[in-house]
Amino acid sequence: MAPRCWRWWPWSAWPRTRPPPSESTQSFCQQFSTQEQTPQICVVGSGPAGFYTAQHLLKHHSQAHVDIYEKQLVPFGLVRFGVAPDHPEVKSYGAEDHKALEIPGEELPGVFSARAFVGWYNGLPENRELAPDLSCDTAVVLGQGNVALDVARILLTPPEHLEKTDITEAALGALRQSQVKTVWIVGRRGALQVAFTIKELREMIQLPGTRPILDPADFLGLQDRIKEVPRPRKRLMELLLRAATEKPGVAEAARWASASRAWGLRFFRSPQQVLPSPDGRRAAGIRLAVTRLEGVGEATRAVPTGDVEDLPCGLVLSSIGYKSRPIDPSVPFDPKLGVIPNMEGRVVDVPGLYCSGWVKRGPTGVITTTMTDSFVTGQILLQDLKAGLLPSGPRPGYAAVKALLGSRGVWPVSFSDWEKLDAEEVSRGQGAGKPREKLLDPQEMLRLLGR
Question: CA-to-CA distance for 47 and 53, rounded, in angstroms?
């Protein structure tokens, strides 16, 4: 269900002489009125959490008036900008920033966050100038979650297999010229602790033109240790074991023998330093600390052994996690956990303010998790409204926001404006047999809207 009233404004439309407002990281809702008949609700962020929260509010309160605000010129957040183009059915990312490696050499050319790399091939305007140099032979992806496998898969997928997706033409052109032949996917812990799922692993194993590099020694004793783990994890481990230790069938062996590209998993390795090229101008490798596990169960952690290993590479992609950013000094924020302190979505000590999505619970879960979580936030808000627990007194709602924007010379982009941009993208994609060709330049978008 679409909100009754959907308005957002882009940063790019703000006057250059005036700084933009504090950045939003995830969806949060503020009650502008406690009047039972016409509650005015503001949702900041048009990703899944924002939409699902708005949907629940509108479904369960017939008079609710919901406005959604978004900093980009287009909606849907990382559903649009964070999902691999060959996975249109997977909508699982949603946070505003990435976790820094905090190691020497991280600033060298050739080192990128996976979030920025994903934004580049998905057409996120702020990443359109990323221009990763793919002329190297080897890339290293730090992290062993689904995002890590996504970027590895995009690097190794034959470009002709991506031509009918909504990947940007610029990214596709760069991938056609790519010299990357090997991608190492590195994790601090062992095989039993990988964070990717069986679907993504199966796709990597079956990826055309590639072969896996898996050391059987990394999986010694794993068969006995997985007997008591939950079934999804057990099935994942069994697939890893088969790929690493069993002799492939005739067809698979022939396919791997002719493969020109490869990917591998490296366990018990933690990034210690990005190594520079001799001239110091770009990344040429990464120094990895060899680790071992301490603790049991959920308390298991990787600790350095004192040994190190240098791995040559010309591209480093960090996929060690996402994080949210604080939105405004008036909104509580826990920088360590990357969340707004809350109780079931109620922001602590700020009546009338609510949060949902990863800024509520941290960067975990997929789209169904976010949907359920957002419905809970919406229900809590409605309960508080009915109980009269929200701040009393009239609130101006969108009228005040509209006046504020007008005073600053800001042109909001409306839902009908988005529909025009959407139609233009679809039209441009049709000629190439793609679902759409995403618009990348905010100024071009504004020109298309007559701004």
Answer: 10
Question: What's the CA angle centered on 339, arms 98 and 122, to 5 degrees?
Answer: 35
C-beta contacts of 328-332 below 8 A and 24+ residues apart: 328/21, 328/22, 329/22, 331/28
Q: Is 352 left (phi over 0), alpha (psi -120 to 50) or beta?
A: left
Please return the burial class of 41, using the count of CB atoms within 10 Å of its CB with bins 0-12, 13-18 and 19+: buried
Place of tokens 């809207």: 449
Catalytic residue, chosen from 150, 166, 384, 417, is: 150
CB 268 within 8 Å of CB 291: yes
Looking up tokens 């010309």, which residue turns up? 314
Task: Give yes or no: 377 in active site.
Answer: no
Residues 6+ apart with CB under 8 A from 419: none
- How far is residue 81's CA from residue 94's CA, in Å, rounded to a whole number? 9
Active site residue 218: no
Whether the CB-CB separation of 385 and 370 falls below 8 Å is answered with no
Residue range 82-130, pLDDT digits in tens: 666 766 545 447 455 566 788 999 999 999 999 899 999 999 888 989 9
**Options 87, 138, 213, 218, the catalytic residue:** 87
Pairwise CA distance, residues 331 & 334, whole Å: 10
3-state secondary structure of 360: helix
| Catalytic residue check, 367 | yes
Give the whole-angstrom CA distance, residue 246 versus residue 240: 10
| Each residue's pLDDT tens digit, 157-173 | 999 999 999 999 999 99
Q: What is the pTM of this model?
A: 0.76
Q: Tokens 């990344």 label which residue?
A: 283
Within 10 Å of residue 415's Cβ, how many Cβ atoms? 14
Burial of 97 (C-beta count, 10 Å sphere; 0-12/13-18/19+): middle
Q: Which two tokens stand for residue 189?
A: 């812990």
The full DSSP string for 382-434 is HHHHHTT-SPPS---THHHHHHHHHHTT---EEHHHHHHHHHHHHHHHHTTTS
**Which DSSP string do the residues of 280-307 spell out, in sequence order?**
SSSEEEEEEEEEEEESSGGG-EEEEEEE
At CA 225, angle to CA 221 and CA 227, rounded to 5?
A: 125
- Is the Cβ–Cβ distance between 66 and 293 less than 8 Å? no
Cβ atoms within 10 Å of 221's Cβ, excluding its own: 8
Strand pairing of 301-312 and 283-294? Answer: antiparallel
pLDDT the model gives residue 295? 85
Cα dihedral across residues 275, 277, 282, 285: positive or negative: negative
Report the DSSP beta bridge partners of residue 169.
none
